[in-house]
TrEMBL record:
Belongs to the Nudix hydrolase family. NudC subfamily. Residues 119-243 form the Nudix hydrolase domain. The keyword Magnesium applies. GO terms for molecular function: metal ion binding; NADH pyrophosphatase activity. This is NAD(+) diphosphatase.
Length: 250
């Protein structure tokens, strides 16, 4: 009997699942990427001639976050990031030679110069800024046409601490100075390969001044009069709802 593996099969940011959002079982092939160092769970890109089985569909991974448990979503997120990393490291970034897949580790190795390329995550800070006891700063992205208001976020730059990144992003995007910057939690976020690192900070000084290329509106909202916020499953949603609960309880 053939051994079947549970498969994360992606086409871009979509994953193959059945009507109940369960993964298919497939026969493993050599190019599959093992997940969790076992052959029981694998990841691959949809093969060119692969036929989508009856009852299966390609669902955007962003939708799965609202259906799946956090553990399930994290594993899918790991699978898609590892696949993307492997796809983008077919050549050595040091000498340009074609790379080979390391037999045991998540590494692409260069047979010519022995350079090892490992998967990388991009640290990205996200900050909930509060003012007084009952106001939260929310900002609308200039790139997003919806009416959703989110939190200030951005990539950590080379040579910068996380706290400095929080201060810099807040100043660049909305012109505010912050105090009492404190770590809250983190979440891997596979769009495409970020580690979201969440902070709470308090407003210190300044008037809101928008960086218009990034932000189309930003305001301090009363916690009982919030606009539309990011979807459930995102770290921003968890941060905002948690803060509102804390403020209401205090
Ligand atoms: Zn090389």
């Amino acid at each position: 009997m053939t051994q079947l593996s549970l498969a994360y099969i992606f086409q871009h940011q979509k994953l193959l699942v059945d009507e109940k959002f369960q993964l298919p079982q497939v026969e493993k092939i050599a190019s599959d990427l093992p997940i969790h160092h076992s052959d029981q769970v694998i990841a691959r890109d949809l093969l060119e001639d692969e036929i989508i089985p009856d009852g299966y569909q390609l669902v955007p991974i962003r939708e799965l976050i609202q259906t799946w448990s956090n553990t399930e979503f994290l594993q899918a997120s790991r699978a898609i990031q590892l696949l993307e990393w492997r796809r983008n490291h077919k050549f050595c970034s040091h000498c340009g030679h074609a790379t080979e897949i390391h037999p045991r580790e998540y590494a692409m190795i260069c047979p010519a110069c022995a350079y090892h390329q490992y998967p990388r995550v991009q640290p990205c800070i996200i900050t909930i800024i509060t003012k007084g006891d009952d106001e939260i700063l929310l900002a609308k992205s200039a790139h997003n046409k919806s009416n959703m208001y989110g939190l200030i976020a951005g990539f950590v730059e080379v040579g910068e601490t996380l706290e400095e990144a929080v201060q810099r992003e807040a100043f660049e995007e909305v012109g505010l100075k912050l105090k009492n910057v404190r770590y809250l939690s983190s979440q891997p976020w596979p769009f495409p390969s970020n580690l979201m690192i969440a902070f709470h900070a308090e407003y210190e000084s300044g008037d809101i001044e928008l960086q218009l290329e990034e932000i189309s509106d930003a305001q301090f909202f009363k916690i009982d009069q919030l606009p539309e916020i990011p979807f459930k499953g995102s770290i921003a949603h968890a941060m905002i709802t948690q803060m509102v609960e804390n403020k209401k309880a205090s």
